[in-house]
Amino acid sequence: MATAERRDPYRSFNFQVEIDGVPVGAFSEVTGLTAEGDAVDYREGTDVQSNVRKLPGLRKYTNLTLKRGYTQDKALWRWHQNIVNGAVDRRNVTIVLMNEARNPVLRWHAENAFVNKIEGPSLKASGNEVAMESVEIVHEGLTIDL
């Protein structure tokens, strides 16, 4: 009797962030991998059914939030400053989930993205925490490699 291959779920801590295909820093958290849409109610006067039809409407994508400990890397702050200065600096962001052997298994692509918000650390003289930065990235589409 042949045994079935075990299919454990992937662990959420094995991931990497790429901007325009280049891996950037080590992030401790990524949230916002969400795509949704509005349903549109529609009914014609000649419809036999007494209920409305549901049609797909506009798609919406949640902003991505990336968090990491502060390092000497200021690339995200420079990207944010480009936007503040009026530059059209849109990039493609990819979140890569990896298996236990650190091989890529899933990729989410956020298209035409830019930094909308960047947040420095909370500083506390009596604290022992890592100084964290957070960046919110707006984008126009989320796809996954199938």
Structural account:
It is a single chain. The chain is mainly beta and 146 residues long. It has a single domain (15-144), classed as Pnp Oxidase, Chain A, CATH 2.30.110. The protein contains one helix and ten strands; from the N terminus they run ββββββαββββ. Strands 1, 2, 3, 6, 7, 8, 9 and 10 form an eight-stranded antiparallel sheet that branches. A hairpin with a 5-residue loop joins β7 and β8 (104-119). The longest helix has 10 residues, at 75-84. It starts with 14 loop residues before the first strand and ends with a strand.
Strand and helix layout:
Blueprint: E1 15-19, E2 22-23, E3 29-31, E4 35-42, E5 53-61, E6 64-69, H1 75-84, E7 91-98, E8 104-119, E9 132-138, E10 142-144
Antiparallel strand pairs: 1-2, 1-7, 3-6, 4-5, 6-9, 7-8, 8-9, 8-10
Q: Give the SSE string.
A: EEEEEEHEEEE
Fraction of residues in β-strands: over 45%
CATH class: Mainly Beta
> In which range does the helix fraction lie?
under 10%
The N- and C-terminal alpha carbons lie at a distance of 32 Å
- Poorly predicted runs are none
Structural class: mainly beta
- Characterize the overall form: extended
Radius of gyration: 21 Å
Extended strand count: 10
Q: Count the DSSP helices.
A: 1
Number of domains: 1
Main beta sheet:
8 strands, antiparallel
Overall pLDDT confidence = 92
CATH topology description: Pnp Oxidase, Chain A
Tell me what the CATH architecture is. Answer: Roll
